[in-house]
Amino acid sequence: MSGNTPTEPVEIWRVGDGRIGDARERDLVIAEEPLSIEVEHGQASLRKREVLAVTMRTPGSDMELALGLLYCEGIIQSHDQVVSIREIRGECGGGDVVTGVRLSLDPSVEWDSAAFQRHTFVNSSCGLCGKVDVEAMMRVRQQTPENETGSDGFRIAVAALTRLSALVRGHQVLFRHTGAVHASAVFDSEGGIELVREDVGRHNAMDKVCGAMLAAGKLPAADRGVFFSGRTSFELVQKAATAGFSMILSVGAPSSVAIEMAGKTGITLAGFIKGTSFNIYTHPERITGDS
After folding, report:
1. More confident position, 177 or 143
2. N or C terminus of the chain with fewer C-beta within 10 Å?
3. Buried-state track 173-198, b at ≥16 Cβ within 10 A, e below 16
């Protein structure tokens, strides 16, 4: 265990030109550690504390991750519904580390934990694997229904979009050191990067982004887009729709269900960006040819 640092040192043997190096070398790998997300809810006289999920994540921005998860799952609709949020610390590997996050919800928040069907363990690479009921994934609490017609006013030029990959890479510190993390980044209509979050799990990176935006009072985000460093999965589109983003741009390709969801929720979905080329899958009206 790394003790809540995002990377861990390891020793490796490098192979090159058909031969194995004579001596071991030090290298960095990304850390992956469990985080328990606990929720206190109910009326003052009937408060309950329950574990919402345990997710494998890269340490860092843990409270943003927890806040974003609750928002994207529809448990909370605003930041002020969270009375308090704090880290849970414990002993691990001889050190005092963050093992969880505890959120206390306002008594007015009605949450049926039994209806939240999620396994206790959530794999870091795929949030869908943690769902018991796949049909539950189809229930999207969309923040901006006007996006269905593209009437939100968000427009961005092709030239601005083609610059995003390089701009985001400049913010990916953990990726530069390890090559093993996903990134989610928020961009504006000029192609400027507002924030970037990295994590070993693509859905964790998006939850961290949503948590940061929620805490800053910037959701719903109809005047912004979100960039993904990998493929676009169904769950990432669901989270983007919940947060009200107008556009998704990704380095990889989307799945068929991701395209269907983006179309239904009014999100402009683009992917396979490489150099100055990319594919538009849904709602092309937000992308202009102006430089």
Report:
1. 177
2. C
3. ebbeebebbbbbbbbebebebbbbbb
Q: Which residues contact 11 (CB under 8 A, 6 or more apart)?
A: 24, 25, 26, 27
| Class of domain 33-135 (CATH, top level) | alpha beta
Distances (CA, A) of 33 to 38, 69, 97, 115: 16, 17, 11, 27
pLDDT score at 87: 96
* Domain chopping of the chain, boundaries: 33-135, 145-288
Mean pLDDT over residues 83-91, rounded?
A: 92
Structure tokens at 255: 């799945």
The length of the chain, given as a count of residues: 291
- State the catalytic residues: 126
Write down the pTM of the prediction: 0.88
Per-residue pLDDT of 35-44, as tens digits, reads 999 999 999 8
Q: Which CATH superfamily is domain 145-288 in?
A: Cytidine Deaminase, domain 2 (3.40.140.10)
- Which residues, including other chains, have CB under 8 Å from residue 100's CB and lie 6 or more apart? 35, 36, 37, 38, 87, 88, 90
